[in-house]
Design brief:
The chain has seven helices and nine strands; from the N terminus they run E-H-E-H-H-H-H-E-E-E-E-E-E-E-H-H. It is an alpha/beta fold.
């Protein structure tokens, strides 16, 4: 069984469309949160995830938009949250509000959280991966760091597919992964997209210019 794994879309429709176009045929999809935030297409990205019925957990930007609180965010992040709250229509907002902090799918084989099994807002970078993060599941899917990585242990796999919409591991291409649940293997994948198109849209939306320009650096 092949599963497409995405995370941290961050309202980047251009990157998300490139990922879906590049992705080989899969039997299912999962998303580790932060569908919205930063970029100027929150509603479109929510709709693309909803129409595919992708099991999704709530990221910290999703929570900030749902709750209307972004006081701990920097200027770029706060601007993206405020933009999303204005842009989302009622049913999109309701979907975002309904997202859980954790999901277990595929008959208990896969657990999805945003940051860490014990704290959805905790950053779990690759050097903090370990078999102790796993419980009864075969695969733990994390997001939040925007860093693509996976490790395989006797107990199972801990993986972060990287960020679709705002990579921070030095590679500006949109990141995602393919998980093989039969073989318990992960294929990390990257795909280029029109970053300049996103930069223009960021400017036209009145969002901070650096939201777009930083995409070229993958940082």
């Amino acid at each position: 069984m092949q599963v497409g794994v995405v995370s941290d879309i961050h309202a980047n429709r251009v990157a998300l469309d490139a990922v879906f176009e590049d992705m080989p045929p899969v039997d299912g999809l999962v998303c580790a949160g932060d569908v919205v935030g930063y970029n100027p297409w929150p509603g479109d990205c929510v709709d693309r995830v909803r129409e595919r019925e992708i099991p999704t957990v709530m990221g910290n930007h999703d929570r900030a938009v749902a709750s209307g609180t972004a006081f701990a965010f920097n200027g770029m992040a706060r601007a993206g949250v405020e933009y999303a709250r204005e842009a989302l229509i009622d049913d999109q907002q309701d979907w975002l509000d309904s997202l859980p902090d954790e999901r277990t799918v595929f008959d208990g084989q896969v657990k999805i959280v945003h940051g860490h099994p014990d704290d959805p807002d905790r950053y779990t970078y690759p050097d903090l991966f370990g078999a102790e993060l796993l419980d009864d599941e075969d695969v733990l899917v994390l997001g939040h760091t925007h860093v693509q990585h996976h490790e395989t242990y006797d107990a199972g796999i801990v993986m972060n597919p990287g960020s679709v919409g705002q990579p921070r591991d030095g590679d500006p291409r949109a990141a995602y992964a393919i998980l093989d649940l039969d073989e318990l293997t992960v294929e990390e994948r990257r795909v280029g997209y029109e970053i300049e198109r996103v930069e223009r849209a960021v400017t036209e939306a009145g969002l901070p210019e650096e939201i777009g320009t930083r995409l070229r650096k993958g940082r």
